[in-house]
Amino acid sequence: MSGGLMIEVAHLTKRYAGRTAVSNISFTVRRGEIVGLLGPNGAGKSTTMRILSCYLPATSGTVRVAGLDVFRQSEEVRRRIGYMPENNPLHFDMRVREYLKFRAQLKGLGHRKSRDRVDTVLEQCSLTDVSHRIVGQLSKGYRQRVGLADALVHEPELIILDEPTIGLDPNQIRAVRQLIKGLANSHTVLISTHILPEAEMTCNRMVIMYQGTILAADTPENLQQFMSSKSQVLAEIAAPMDELRACWAEVPEIENYDVSACEGKYYRCALTPRNGMDLRPLVFDMAREHGWPLRELTRNRHSLEDIYVQLTKPADEEES
Amino acid sequence: MQAYCTLVRRELGAYFLSMTGYIIIAAVTFLLGMSFVVLLMKLQQEPTPIPLTELFYVTQFFWLILLLATPVITMRLFAQEKFSGTFETLMTTPVSELDVVLAKFTAGLVFYVLAWLPLLACLLIVRHFANDPTAFDPGIVASTFLGIVLIGALFVSLGCCASALTRSQVAAAMISLLCGCTVFCVGVLADRFPAQNNWQSQALAAMAIFDQMHDFARGVVDTRSVVLYVSLTLFFLFVTLRIVESRRWK
After folding, report:
1. What interface predicted TM-score (ipTM) does this complex get?
2. In chain A, what are the domains?
């Protein structure tokens, strides 16, 4: 029995001719969770989603959705899934309502039920005003919402969205995120993205993938905490270089430092903490003590790239 | 069944939502018009007891229509969906591969038959102006259309197969045209070499599509031809189904 689990992926491997896209990954998603698959292009996110949505078979391993095997009980699984692939392919020659009705009927909804559901999702995705327009003539943001409406139209238990906000402007991104957040109570959602803040904002949990493997799977807060423990502090200070170097070398909390020339009398110091502490107050105090002009003091916001760099090493330890 | 009907409606609608459908109908109508002109010229020269449909068939425009129209009708069925990515959204809905293949084939065949309908108008025009009720024998017209549908079904199934193989519509049309021409050439060979007693020659004779179509146009329905076309169509649909399913092979 799957209990409260919506997705169970165990030792999943997918090989294409001569290339391993996904290598022995395992993770679970509980009912009602919003989980983000995070990773750069080519990390294996889309492949994992395609396997989950029954489009591709796995080379080895088992994948279950709502307790059903995606390969053996594929049709049953597909009934429970609303899937929006990458780049959101749509029939550009159809009108919005016509397209959604076509999709609803394909997904097994009867004539009346499909009409009701189309009305509901049109409203839910703020598409009512454009329901008579041709899909191909809509803006990217609207098309994205049509894709979302399609994924929602048959009230699936699990919604899988592959990069739902790619190519949208900030306002549209916000609207799509709001929509996804709104689904949390009634659906389980799995979204993939390569934008870290997006996953942070919308997801209860993140699974970070890199080169076909899972590097980490945790809540955004825990991952953030882990990340910030290694984040550098950047300071631009006007002081003699030797004094700066000597000063940083004396501070036990600083594990590593790098001082490089900036324009004018200023030097740019990149300081890595030893035990995860925030070095900013310390740097500020030092500058004040020595009477050095300080014009910038920032803590590096961890970029996705940093996560990969940092997680590649601990990944081995975690596995063991 | 619901998914099948929904898909047939969508596929048929797609022909009329794009220019392709209208261009195909216009081209087929043009070729039918050409054959109509040839037919009228023949009728002007001398009276003939040959049925009108047979006269139409022997103008040879029939094969031109069949060979050129079917690749264009079928090229988009799978290739366009694969190219645009909608094949992924289609195959992740709870529809079976069989439904998809049958629906696309049905839509292609129905459109092909629709494109042939102006032929009926041509026949009715001749009947009206010749003032001869025997010029339009419903039985012979039905058998001609049976021939058109059966041989069309074979070519449409070949086209489906070609379209399922590739993401490029042009490549699908080329493959389909090549296969169609091969069937046509086998027909030419069967026509050139008279049947002998060895099995090779017998097999070739079974593919004498010119004679078979000629029979249909004369009002003769030979069950052997019906069985041949139906089984070949089913075979190519089966191959198409396997191609579509191959995505899910481990």
Report:
1. 0.88
2. 5-227 (3.40.50.300), 232-300 (3.30.70.3100)
